[in-house]
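2024-03-11 09:14:02 INFO worker-7 job=invfold-0412 stage=load source=structure_tokens
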């Protein structure tokens, strides 16, 4: 018995071969939930404390090893300096160490290969001119711990802004207008998730509608519920997890048409 449906969650390159294998075998259907470089947009009319806290967890949750991490953080000019300062405080307050210690809230990366990849991208950020605010290196001499890292003044064409780091590295850029930040946020091959922070409901609807992302959070981040579909646009995959939309991937539609000898009504 051969499978007729495959559910995949992994990196873009490896899943391209999954799709090819499906076509070359029995044309099994696949849904792909891949990576992202999700933009998180903070307007100057937001609740600053709420935005800082949610954006912090939006990136540092699971030490950055999260497909929908809000790693491209865009902050409006009016609150930019203050926001960066608060974010650095949050990052520096994280507790690294023994995962069995209840005080620890920042664990290790999955392996040495991933840790070295992260360090390499951090080094590229420094070389390309981003402002390293804190962190940037390995923590300790045991395990694969990466220091919580925050970059400011990041340009959109830097490697740390275009590549999925999959680690605890936050990149913060400033912006002036909603139109500008929408264009910049959408300038990526990915489209898994996004965040918007503002007290203006009209602005929230305008920006979230314009963002090319499968899941947009407003004044929160990384909140998933069973009833809501989750999945991406563009190279972040196709198909959906959760919600009624997810069921379509696991079901087949059948139409039965038959002739009847006599119509009685």
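2024-03-11 09:14:09 INFO worker-7 stage=emit residues=265
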């Amino acid at each position: 018995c051969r499978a007729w449906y495959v559910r995949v969650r992994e990196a873009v390159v490896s899943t391209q071969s999954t799709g090819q294998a499906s076509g070359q075998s029995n044309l099994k259907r696949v849904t792909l939930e891949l990576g992202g470089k999700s933009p998180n947009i903070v307007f100057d009319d937001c609740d600053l404390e709420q935005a800082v806290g949610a954006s912090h967890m939006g990136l540092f949750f699971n030490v950055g090893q999260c497909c929908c991490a809000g790693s491209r953080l865009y902050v409006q000019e009016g609150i930019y300096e203050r926001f960066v300062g608060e974010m650095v405080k949050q990052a520096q307050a994280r507790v690294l160490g023994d995962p069995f210690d209840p005080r620890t809230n920042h664990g290790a990366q999955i392996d040495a290969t991933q840790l070295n990849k992260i360090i390499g991208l951090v080094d590229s950020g420094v070389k390309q001119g981003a402002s390293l605010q804190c962190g940037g290196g390995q923590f300790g001499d045991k395990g694969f711990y990466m220091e919580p890292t925050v970059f400011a003044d990041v340009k959109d064409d830097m490697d740390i802004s275009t590549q999925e780091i999959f680690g605890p590295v936050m990149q913060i850029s400033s912006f002036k207008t909603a139109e500008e930040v929408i264009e910049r946020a959408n300038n990526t091959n990915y489209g898994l998730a996004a965040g918007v922070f503002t007290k203006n409901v009209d602005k929230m609807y305008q920006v979230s509608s314009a963002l090319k992302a499968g899941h947009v959070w407003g004044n929160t981040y990384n909140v998933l519920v069973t009833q809501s579909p989750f999945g991406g646009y563009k190279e972040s995959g196709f198909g959906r997890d959760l919600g009624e939309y997810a069921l379509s991937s696991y079901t087949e539609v059948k139409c039965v048409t038959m002739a009847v000898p006599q119509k009685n009504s």
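2024-03-11 09:14:09 INFO worker-7 stage=report msg="Strands lie at 5-8, 29-33, 39-42, 72-76, 131-134, 149-152, 169-175, 193-197, 215-218, 237-238."
2024-03-11 09:14:10 INFO worker-7 job finished
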